[in-house]
Amino acid sequence: MKLNITTNHVIRGLVYFLGIIMTGLGVNVLLRSALGAGAWDTVIFNLRALFKNNFNIDVTLGTVSFMIYLIVLSYVMWYYKKLKFLFVFIPMFGIALAIDFWDIIVLSNFHPEDLWIRAILFGVGVFVLALGLSSILVTKYPAMVFDELTLILMKVLHIKSFFLSRMYIELFAIVLATLFGFISNIGFGAVNFGSFLLALIIGPLIQFQLKYLTKITTPLFN
Questions:
Q1: Over the range 10-34, which residues count as b (16 or more CB within 10 Å of their CB) and which as e?
Q2: Could you read off the pLDDT of 40-78 as tens digits, one per residue?
Q3: Checking phi first, is residue 2 left (phi over 0); if not, alpha (psi -120 to 50) or beta?
Q4: Each residue of 134-155: pLDDT tens digit?
Q5: Rounded CA gap, 90 and 107, in Å?
Q6: What is the C-alpha separation between 135 and 209, in angstroms, rounded?
Q7: What's the rounded Cα separation, in Å, for the pair 190 and 196?
Q8: Name one Pfam family in it (predicted).
């Protein structure tokens, strides 16, 4: 029996909302592992430190993330010259709020030092982050702008491989984060070996989770 349109969108909306919440949690867990966060999350963390240490401006992680997403979105819209990408504001704003929710309200006093705990957190963070992004994608609602940025790079540099193009973007983010870190006197900051590992495995892991999420949600969405 098919669901009516309203019920369909309610279920998709719930999955979408859970995806945003899980993405924010994954970002925070990885940052607290101190073993390496996602490429653009290292940029967020180190740029926040730059604002605080160099300009005495204390902003939240979510605020900085929204700023970075907005810059990327502006470029995507300039390249395509299409207003439809304005819908990407929804996950941008939602993930920014989710990052601050976990960082400020839930995990504010959670900063483990034991290496084995941090190693577990890294593994959990990778899984949760990928699951959150997969949940957003499976709804077919607006996703983040980095996929569009990847497609643009493929066209500009004539790269045929989506994975290779995305790797270039991730590596650029890590280099940018490292630059921000040293300027703000925190060294590599959130950049660690796990950042490079995550850049390699996050794509295949999302594809793997998306495959099974699609099987689970298809009866619910139709």
A1: eebeebbeebbbbbbbbbbbbbbbb
A2: 999 999 999 999 999 999 999 999 999 999 999 999 999
A3: beta
A4: 999 899 888 888 888 888 998 9
A5: 24
A6: 9
A7: 12
A8: DUF6198
User: Can you say how many angstroms the Cα of residue 2 is from the centroid of all Cα atoms in its chain?
Assistant: 33
pTM of the predicted structure, to 2 decimals: 0.92
Q: Cα(177)–Cα(50) distance, rounded to whole angstroms?
A: 10
Q: Which token pair is 190?
A: 């959130």
The answer to whether 58 touches 215, Cβ cutoff 8 Å, is no
Q: Please give the mean pLDDT across all residues of the chain.
A: 92
Q: Residue 222 pLDDT more than 90?
A: no
Beta strands in 4-156 (DSSP E): none
Q: Are 144 and 69 in contact (CB under 8 A)?
A: yes
- Looking at the predicted structure, is the pLDDT value of residue 1 above 50? no
b/e per residue 145-156 (b: at least 16 CB within 10 A): bbebbbbbbbee
| Tally of CB atoms within 10 A around 181 | 22
Q: Can you count the helices (H) and strands (E) in the chain?
A: 8, 0
For residue 48, report the phi and psi dihedrals to the nearest 5 degrees: -60, -40
Q: What is the tens place of the pLDDT at every residue in 85-139?
A: 888 899 999 999 999 999 999 999 999 999 999 999 999 999 999 999 999 989 9
Short-list 130, 202, 134, 135, CA closest to 169: 202
